[in-house]
Fold this protein.
Amino acid sequence: YHSSIMATTVKKMTTTAMTSSSFLDRPIPGLNITTAIALWLVVTTVFPVYYRATQTMQTTRMTWLGISLLGFNNLNILIAVCEIGLGKYITNIQDHYRHLQKTYKQEDRWQAAISYLTLPLSLRTLFDLSVWCQMWSTYSLWDPSYSNRESFGFFIDVGNGYSTILPCILWDFVILFPNSLFQNDNRNNRPYTVLVGMIGACMYWQVLYGTIIYFLSFVFNKRYVGKPVVEISAFVGFTNGIWFVFPILGLYASYQLLVQGNGDAVINIFGV
């Protein structure tokens, strides 16, 4: 009798575990790498901006500079997590890169990128960093340095991953809640404003400098040879260009904070 009860209990537990596993592994309709990135930006950027626009009672609204930097910072946070994964899963990335080389001919590299961007995600794989890190093995089809732990591209990205998340969060907070820097409506809190400006200047310059050196390294080593201009422009130029354009905007905002050094600068740059 007791054996029968134990057997029944074990069977129920096994069935429950299998059902739970099946639920976690079942692809979510419409959710892939591209839509997951878009969803992240909507949740972290669009919703907060909309909330600020509808809830704030002031006449001043967020500036386009503030919104642009907020969106860039949140995208950078997501990619920074993947850059940390680049260092953690470099061996897996190298193996997957070799697999992609065997699977796709040179003229079919773009199909590998499309396959990654449209990769279906389940609840389990959505939070599996090793799955997201397939971006590096795929990108290695255009630049093999990202599957080489001794390259500049590998180290600059892993370094950016660990060093830029907290500054981005700080700037997001200041952009969304600029009045939080001030107490009792005192907008002459120069130390806080200057500190934010210094952190921003360091972070955005680091990202910009790394991007410039990476572009120079890519060209100097002629990694573009044998690859169509369209592919290089899209998969190398555009994707890395984001980390060239927006850091310049960030440096401009940092400069204004440092020069003006008061709360009015924060309000003028980011709005309320």
About this structure: The radius of gyration is 23 Å. The chain has a mean pLDDT of 86. The first helix runs from residue 2 to 25. Residues 12 and 212 are 59 Å apart (CA to CA).
